[in-house]
Design brief:
Radius of gyration: 22 Å
Number of strands: 18
Low-confidence stretches: none
Strand order of the largest sheet: 16-15-14-17-18
Strand content: 25-35%
Largest sheet: 5 strands, antiparallel
Order of helices and strands: EHEEEEEHHEHHEHEEEEHEEEEHEEHH
Shape: globular
Structural class: alpha+beta
Helix content: 25-40%
Length: about 325
Protein backbone atom coordinates (compact mmCIF):
# COMPACT_ATOMS: atom_id res chain seq x y z
CA UNK A 1 0.00 0.00 0.00
CA UNK A 2 1.10 3.57 -0.73
CA UNK A 3 0.53 6.16 2.01
CA UNK A 4 0.31 9.87 1.19
CA UNK A 5 0.86 12.22 4.13
CA UNK A 6 -0.54 15.66 3.36
CA UNK A 7 -3.01 18.42 4.27
CA UNK A 8 -6.71 18.91 3.70
CA UNK A 9 -6.33 22.10 1.65
CA UNK A 10 -3.93 23.91 -0.67
CA UNK A 11 -2.16 20.80 -1.98
CA UNK A 12 -3.29 20.51 -5.58
CA UNK A 13 -0.18 18.58 -6.66
CA UNK A 14 -1.00 15.72 -4.29
CA UNK A 15 -4.59 15.64 -5.56
CA UNK A 16 -3.33 15.23 -9.12
CA UNK A 17 -0.89 12.47 -8.22
CA UNK A 18 -3.83 10.68 -6.56
CA UNK A 19 -5.73 10.94 -9.85
CA UNK A 20 -2.91 9.04 -11.57
CA UNK A 21 -2.80 6.44 -8.80
CA UNK A 22 -6.55 5.97 -9.31
CA UNK A 23 -5.96 5.67 -13.05
CA UNK A 24 -3.46 2.85 -12.48
CA UNK A 25 -5.71 1.16 -9.86
CA UNK A 26 -2.99 1.51 -7.22
CA UNK A 27 -3.68 0.68 -3.59
CA UNK A 28 -3.13 3.89 -1.63
CA UNK A 29 -4.29 5.83 1.40
CA UNK A 30 -4.11 9.55 2.13
CA UNK A 31 -3.67 10.84 5.68
CA UNK A 32 -4.07 14.57 6.34
CA UNK A 33 -2.32 16.04 9.35
CA UNK A 34 -5.47 17.90 10.37
CA UNK A 35 -7.29 14.59 10.86
CA UNK A 36 -5.26 13.92 13.99
CA UNK A 37 -6.54 17.07 15.68
CA UNK A 38 -10.20 16.22 15.12
CA UNK A 39 -12.46 14.73 17.74
CA UNK A 40 -15.33 13.35 15.65
CA UNK A 41 -16.49 9.74 15.40
CA UNK A 42 -15.70 9.17 11.73
CA UNK A 43 -11.91 9.11 12.09
CA UNK A 44 -10.11 7.34 14.95
CA UNK A 45 -6.47 6.33 15.41
CA UNK A 46 -4.99 3.75 17.78
CA UNK A 47 -1.43 2.66 18.58
CA UNK A 48 -1.43 -0.45 20.78
CA UNK A 49 0.54 -0.85 24.02
CA UNK A 50 3.48 -2.55 22.30
CA UNK A 51 3.54 0.16 19.60
CA UNK A 52 3.90 -2.44 16.87
CA UNK A 53 0.56 -1.89 15.13
CA UNK A 54 -1.17 1.22 13.98
CA UNK A 55 -4.85 0.92 13.09
CA UNK A 56 -6.79 3.62 11.32
CA UNK A 57 -10.58 3.87 11.25
CA UNK A 58 -12.06 5.96 8.42
CA UNK A 59 -15.81 6.23 7.99
CA UNK A 60 -16.25 2.90 9.78
CA UNK A 61 -13.60 1.07 7.73
CA UNK A 62 -10.54 -0.26 9.53
CA UNK A 63 -7.14 -0.06 7.82
CA UNK A 64 -4.02 -1.80 9.14
CA UNK A 65 -1.14 0.51 8.35
CA UNK A 66 1.36 -2.33 8.64
CA UNK A 67 0.42 -2.97 5.00
CA UNK A 68 2.03 0.33 3.97
CA UNK A 69 5.23 -0.19 1.97
CA UNK A 70 6.10 3.36 0.83
CA UNK A 71 5.21 6.80 2.21
CA UNK A 72 5.15 10.04 0.25
CA UNK A 73 5.58 12.87 2.73
CA UNK A 74 4.07 16.03 1.28
CA UNK A 75 2.89 18.21 4.13
CA UNK A 76 1.46 17.89 7.60
CA UNK A 77 -0.56 19.82 10.14
CA UNK A 78 0.18 23.52 10.61
CA UNK A 79 0.16 24.23 14.31
CA UNK A 80 -1.24 27.68 13.59
CA UNK A 81 -4.48 25.95 12.61
CA UNK A 82 -4.77 24.42 16.09
CA UNK A 83 -4.30 27.88 17.57
CA UNK A 84 -7.02 29.26 15.30
CA UNK A 85 -9.50 26.58 16.39
CA UNK A 86 -8.89 27.19 20.10
CA UNK A 87 -9.08 30.97 19.63
CA UNK A 88 -12.70 30.55 18.57
CA UNK A 89 -13.57 29.03 21.94
CA UNK A 90 -14.85 31.34 24.67
CA UNK A 91 -12.00 30.73 27.10
CA UNK A 92 -10.03 32.89 29.47
CA UNK A 93 -6.96 34.32 27.69
CA UNK A 94 -4.34 32.65 29.90
CA UNK A 95 -6.16 29.33 29.68
CA UNK A 96 -6.33 29.66 25.89
CA UNK A 97 -2.58 30.19 25.62
CA UNK A 98 -1.84 27.21 27.86
CA UNK A 99 -4.31 24.97 26.03
CA UNK A 100 -2.84 25.89 22.64
CA UNK A 101 0.67 25.03 23.76
CA UNK A 102 -0.42 21.76 25.34
CA UNK A 103 -2.44 20.52 22.34
CA UNK A 104 0.34 21.46 19.92
CA UNK A 105 2.80 19.40 21.97
CA UNK A 106 0.34 16.50 22.05
CA UNK A 107 -0.18 16.51 18.26
CA UNK A 108 3.54 17.00 17.60
CA UNK A 109 4.49 14.08 19.83
CA UNK A 110 1.82 11.83 18.31
CA UNK A 111 3.02 12.80 14.81
CA UNK A 112 6.56 11.78 15.74
CA UNK A 113 5.17 8.43 16.94
CA UNK A 114 3.51 7.87 13.58
CA UNK A 115 6.64 8.80 11.63
CA UNK A 116 8.69 6.54 13.91
CA UNK A 117 6.30 3.66 13.25
CA UNK A 118 7.15 3.92 9.54
CA UNK A 119 10.93 4.18 10.03
CA UNK A 120 11.56 0.82 8.37
CA UNK A 121 9.47 1.75 5.31
CA UNK A 122 10.62 3.48 2.14
CA UNK A 123 10.05 7.24 2.20
CA UNK A 124 9.73 9.90 -0.45
CA UNK A 125 11.10 11.71 1.64
CA UNK A 126 11.46 11.34 5.42
CA UNK A 127 10.15 14.33 7.46
CA UNK A 128 13.51 14.71 9.21
CA UNK A 129 15.30 15.30 5.90
CA UNK A 130 12.47 17.44 4.54
CA UNK A 131 12.55 19.66 7.61
CA UNK A 132 16.31 20.17 7.39
CA UNK A 133 15.96 22.13 4.13
CA UNK A 134 14.13 24.89 6.03
CA UNK A 135 17.40 25.84 7.74
CA UNK A 136 18.48 28.25 5.01
CA UNK A 137 21.92 29.18 6.33
CA UNK A 138 22.98 25.55 6.79
CA UNK A 139 21.59 24.69 3.35
CA UNK A 140 23.53 27.53 1.71
CA UNK A 141 26.74 26.40 3.39
CA UNK A 142 26.26 22.85 2.11
CA UNK A 143 25.55 24.12 -1.41
CA UNK A 144 28.65 26.32 -1.32
CA UNK A 145 30.83 23.44 -0.09
CA UNK A 146 29.70 21.41 -3.12
CA UNK A 147 30.77 24.20 -5.46
CA UNK A 148 27.50 26.03 -6.14
CA UNK A 149 27.55 29.83 -6.06
CA UNK A 150 25.29 31.41 -3.43
CA UNK A 151 24.18 34.98 -2.60
CA UNK A 152 25.97 36.95 0.10
CA UNK A 153 23.77 36.53 3.21
CA UNK A 154 23.49 37.83 6.76
CA UNK A 155 21.00 37.40 9.62
CA UNK A 156 20.84 40.43 11.90
CA UNK A 157 18.76 42.93 13.83
CA UNK A 158 21.73 45.29 14.25
CA UNK A 159 21.29 48.51 12.27
CA UNK A 160 25.02 49.12 11.95
CA UNK A 161 25.72 45.68 10.48
CA UNK A 162 22.73 45.84 8.12
CA UNK A 163 23.77 49.29 6.88
CA UNK A 164 27.28 47.98 6.24
CA UNK A 165 25.71 45.15 4.20
CA UNK A 166 23.86 47.78 2.15
CA UNK A 167 27.08 49.72 1.63
CA UNK A 168 28.68 46.60 0.17
CA UNK A 169 25.82 45.37 -2.04
CA UNK A 170 23.66 48.48 -2.67
CA UNK A 171 20.51 46.46 -3.40
CA UNK A 172 19.24 44.02 -0.76
CA UNK A 173 16.30 41.63 -0.34
CA UNK A 174 14.80 40.04 2.77
CA UNK A 175 13.09 36.66 3.15
CA UNK A 176 12.06 34.35 6.03
CA UNK A 177 14.87 32.68 7.94
CA UNK A 178 12.89 29.45 8.22
CA UNK A 179 10.62 27.69 5.75
CA UNK A 180 8.28 30.05 3.90
CA UNK A 181 4.87 29.96 5.56
CA UNK A 182 1.45 31.31 4.69
CA UNK A 183 -1.50 32.55 6.67
CA UNK A 184 -5.08 31.44 6.13
CA UNK A 185 -7.82 33.99 6.70
CA UNK A 186 -11.42 33.15 5.74
CA UNK A 187 -10.35 30.27 3.47
CA UNK A 188 -7.76 32.40 1.64
CA UNK A 189 -4.00 31.77 1.81
CA UNK A 190 -1.60 34.70 2.18
CA UNK A 191 2.04 33.70 1.55
CA UNK A 192 5.20 35.51 2.64
CA UNK A 193 7.35 36.53 -0.33
CA UNK A 194 10.89 37.69 -0.96
CA UNK A 195 10.91 41.49 -0.87
CA UNK A 196 13.45 44.16 -1.78
CA UNK A 197 14.22 46.34 1.23
CA UNK A 198 15.72 49.83 1.16
CA UNK A 199 18.32 51.65 3.21
CA UNK A 200 15.67 54.11 4.40
CA UNK A 201 13.60 51.18 5.78
CA UNK A 202 16.47 50.31 8.10
CA UNK A 203 17.30 53.93 8.88
CA UNK A 204 13.72 54.77 9.89
CA UNK A 205 13.00 51.60 11.86
CA UNK A 206 12.86 52.09 15.63
CA UNK A 207 13.24 48.38 16.36
CA UNK A 208 14.26 45.54 14.09
CA UNK A 209 13.26 41.91 14.45
CA UNK A 210 15.98 39.38 13.62
CA UNK A 211 15.82 39.01 9.82
CA UNK A 212 17.62 37.42 6.89
CA UNK A 213 19.13 39.72 4.25
CA UNK A 214 20.72 38.82 0.92
CA UNK A 215 22.28 40.74 -1.92
CA UNK A 216 19.78 41.29 -4.74
CA UNK A 217 20.96 39.31 -7.77
CA UNK A 218 20.59 41.07 -11.13
CA UNK A 219 19.13 38.24 -13.17
CA UNK A 220 18.65 37.25 -16.77
CA UNK A 221 16.01 34.73 -15.75
CA UNK A 222 15.02 32.43 -12.88
CA UNK A 223 15.11 28.66 -12.95
CA UNK A 224 12.77 26.28 -11.16
CA UNK A 225 14.11 22.73 -11.28
CA UNK A 226 12.25 19.63 -10.17
CA UNK A 227 14.41 16.66 -9.21
CA UNK A 228 13.15 13.08 -8.95
CA UNK A 229 15.41 10.11 -8.30
CA UNK A 230 18.33 11.23 -10.48
CA UNK A 231 16.36 13.07 -13.18
CA UNK A 232 16.08 16.85 -13.59
CA UNK A 233 13.11 18.70 -15.08
CA UNK A 234 14.05 22.36 -15.48
CA UNK A 235 12.12 25.47 -16.47
CA UNK A 236 13.28 29.02 -17.21
CA UNK A 237 11.08 31.86 -15.97
CA UNK A 238 11.53 35.26 -17.64
CA UNK A 239 10.39 37.16 -14.58
CA UNK A 240 12.70 40.12 -15.13
CA UNK A 241 10.49 41.33 -18.00
CA UNK A 242 7.73 42.33 -15.57
CA UNK A 243 8.33 44.85 -12.79
CA UNK A 244 5.84 43.03 -10.56
CA UNK A 245 7.82 39.77 -10.70
CA UNK A 246 11.39 41.08 -10.99
CA UNK A 247 12.34 40.42 -7.37
CA UNK A 248 10.30 37.23 -6.92
CA UNK A 249 8.37 35.47 -9.70
CA UNK A 250 5.89 34.31 -7.05
CA UNK A 251 4.46 37.85 -7.00
CA UNK A 252 2.38 36.54 -9.87
CA UNK A 253 0.91 38.77 -12.53
CA UNK A 254 -2.20 36.78 -13.39
CA UNK A 255 -3.23 39.17 -16.17
CA UNK A 256 0.08 38.81 -18.02
CA UNK A 257 1.97 35.75 -16.86
CA UNK A 258 5.73 35.31 -17.18
CA UNK A 259 7.02 33.36 -20.15
CA UNK A 260 8.05 29.88 -18.92
CA UNK A 261 9.88 27.37 -21.12
CA UNK A 262 11.70 24.01 -20.75
CA UNK A 263 15.40 24.44 -19.98
CA UNK A 264 18.50 22.24 -20.13
CA UNK A 265 20.86 22.80 -17.22
CA UNK A 266 24.60 22.46 -17.84
CA UNK A 267 25.89 19.02 -16.87
CA UNK A 268 28.22 20.63 -14.32
CA UNK A 269 25.28 22.22 -12.45
CA UNK A 270 23.21 19.01 -12.57
CA UNK A 271 26.15 17.04 -11.16
CA UNK A 272 26.51 19.49 -8.25
CA UNK A 273 22.77 19.44 -7.55
CA UNK A 274 22.89 15.63 -7.58
CA UNK A 275 25.57 15.80 -4.88
CA UNK A 276 23.44 18.28 -2.94
CA UNK A 277 20.39 16.01 -2.92
CA UNK A 278 22.59 13.10 -1.87
CA UNK A 279 24.00 15.17 1.00
CA UNK A 280 20.48 16.19 2.05
CA UNK A 281 19.28 12.57 1.78
CA UNK A 282 16.42 13.63 -0.48
CA UNK A 283 15.02 11.75 -3.47
CA UNK A 284 12.94 14.61 -4.84
CA UNK A 285 12.37 18.33 -4.51
CA UNK A 286 12.27 21.71 -6.23
CA UNK A 287 15.35 23.90 -6.63
CA UNK A 288 15.44 27.66 -7.18
CA UNK A 289 18.40 29.07 -9.11
CA UNK A 290 19.05 32.48 -10.69
CA UNK A 291 21.06 32.95 -13.89
CA UNK A 292 22.62 36.35 -13.33
CA UNK A 293 23.62 38.94 -15.91
CA UNK A 294 27.20 37.59 -15.83
CA UNK A 295 25.95 34.18 -16.93
CA UNK A 296 26.55 32.58 -13.51
CA UNK A 297 24.15 30.14 -11.86
CA UNK A 298 23.32 31.29 -8.30
CA UNK A 299 21.74 28.70 -6.00
CA UNK A 300 18.94 29.95 -3.71
CA UNK A 301 17.18 27.04 -2.01
CA UNK A 302 15.62 23.56 -2.12
CA UNK A 303 11.95 22.95 -1.37
CA UNK A 304 11.01 19.24 -1.04
CA UNK A 305 7.27 19.95 -0.69
CA UNK A 306 6.59 22.71 -3.21
CA UNK A 307 3.81 22.65 -5.78
CA UNK A 308 5.53 21.25 -8.88
CA UNK A 309 2.55 21.69 -11.21
CA UNK A 310 3.90 25.09 -12.20
CA UNK A 311 6.86 23.26 -13.80
CA UNK A 312 4.98 20.20 -14.99
CA UNK A 313 2.23 21.85 -17.02
CA UNK A 314 4.02 24.66 -18.94
CA UNK A 315 6.82 22.25 -19.93
CA UNK A 316 4.66 19.15 -20.52
CA UNK A 317 6.79 17.12 -18.11
CA UNK A 318 3.81 15.18 -16.67
CA UNK A 319 5.48 15.09 -13.25
CA UNK A 320 2.28 14.00 -11.49
CA UNK A 321 2.26 10.76 -13.48
CA UNK A 322 6.01 10.25 -12.99
CA UNK A 323 5.64 10.54 -9.20
CA UNK A 324 2.70 8.12 -9.21
CA UNK A 325 4.78 5.66 -11.24
CA UNK A 326 7.73 6.05 -8.86
CA UNK A 327 5.52 5.28 -5.86
CA UNK A 328 4.05 2.21 -7.52
CA UNK A 329 7.41 0.86 -8.72
CA UNK A 330 9.00 1.28 -5.27
CA UNK A 331 6.33 -0.45 -3.19
Amino acid sequence: MIALLSKEKFDLSTDEVMDWLDHYNANFLRLNGEDFSKSDKTSTYTINDECNTLTLMIDGTSVNLSEVSIIWFRRWIRYGEIREKISKLNLEKNLTIGLKDNLIKEIATFSISIFKYFDNKKWLDHPIHVGATGKKIELLKIAQSIGLKIPSTIISNNKKDIKAFFDTHQRVITKPIAEVQYFIVEEKAYPIRTQEIYYSDIENAENLFLSLFQELIEKTYELRIFYLDGAFYSMAIFSQNDQQTQVDFRNYNFEKTNRMVPYQLPTEIEDKLQLLFKELQLTHGSVDIIRNTKGEYIFLEVNPVGQFGMVSKPCNYHLEEKIAQYLMHNQ
